[in-house]
Amino acid sequence: MNPFNAKNIQQNLEVSGSVKAKCPSNIALIKYWGKKDIQIPMNPSLSFTLNESYTETTLAYSPKTTDDYSVKVYLDGELKESFAPKIIQFFERIAENIGFLKNFHFELHTHNTFPHSSGIASSASGLGALSLCLVDLEEKLGAEFLEGEKTQKASYLARLGSGSACRSIYPGITVWGETDRVVGSSDLFAIPYPYQIHENFRDYQDTILLIDEGQKEVSSTVGHNLMNNHPYAERRFSSAEENLGTLIPILESGDLHEFGKLVELEALTLHAMMMTSSPYFILMKPNTLKAIEEIWKFRKETNLPLYFTLDAGANIHMLYPSTIKTEVQNLIENSLKSLCHAGKYIQDFVKIS
Ligand code: 2P0
């Protein structure tokens, strides 16, 4: 039996109540870009799960008898009618995995610690938090889980909502996508990174420069589709896997310059894919390039391991060890803040013990 299928529920479903969960966003170092049905990645990806940027969700449920999905979504207390269709689409996708979705009317109260349209994907943390709520509720209603199975199921469900969300379920470093290079890896859910991580990565910093606060220019659906029939797609899928293979000994040795070079290469490759697709897109803004030049200049002058990565957008994630926080803070104040929209940036980090 598929362990992710709907579990037997012993309890009477004529009950009301609520469950609550919290899930952070994540930043990919090895990027997921390109997928096939349903939500199967074309290459493995690896990410840092963040700490300060998260979604908190309370899922309230009350019994109903109609044969349909019923959900209302509130963001910071405000009803968001436009969010319900996406959640219902998610419910339809996970109908065989969670058996009680039509038995209840759901009210989802959600709050993000990061600003809306800050360029931090709320789909990863939002669908992660909702998936954690659903497995919690399944357990509360009488389903039984083996050790670790509940979290793995949450990651499986989150993937069906939004690919990158499956990585947010675990803290620290996570891997999603089946590859011989990572034992236990799967296309169906993410796993905690199983190998040794050097202490140089302890509390690794991610400062997100909010270069552009607007809506994403290219939705992830459109973006992933661009990899279908892309002339360089096959080479890209294998280079992502090769880069993951290169990263594993770097994470063990703690060579922060080798780490940074690989991470920048991955980010620029992702953008190169979008610049060479049909239609093509440039997702960086002039200030993205200016900030990159400042980061490279800083590195040349100080030889300190400050590197960047990018999501599918204009904002910059600056990655660096906590030991150089003061120097980076000076750089932000002197050269980078003025490149950010309204001078805004977000300070985050990945908890690696
Ligand atoms: C990633 N991104 O690995 C890559 C890098 C953006 C750039 O995954 O269609 O929102 O929901 O599965 O996860 C963004 O895509 O896409 C993404 P869907 P998702 O983080």
From TrEMBL:
Does this UniProt record's set of keywords contain Lyase? yes
- Which InterPro entries is this protein grouped with? GHMP_kinase_C_sf, Mev_decarb, MVD-like_N, Mvd1_C, Ribosomal_Su5_D2-typ_SF, Ribsml_uS5_D2-typ_fold_subgr
What would you give as a GO molecular function for this chain, any one?
diphosphomevalonate decarboxylase activity
Write out the entry's keywords from A to Z: ATP-binding, Lipid biosynthesis, Lipid metabolism, Lyase, Nucleotide-binding
Q: The Mvd1 C-terminal domain covers which part of the protein?
A: 208-338
What are the EC numbers? 4.1.1.33
Q: Does the keyword S-adenosyl-L-methionine apply?
A: no
Tell me the ranges covered by the Diphosphomevalonate decarboxylase-like N-terminal domain, including all copies: 24-181
Q: By what name is this protein known? A: Diphosphomevalonate decarboxylase
**Lineage of origin:** Bacteria, Pseudomonadati, Bacteroidota, Flavobacteriia, Flavobacteriales
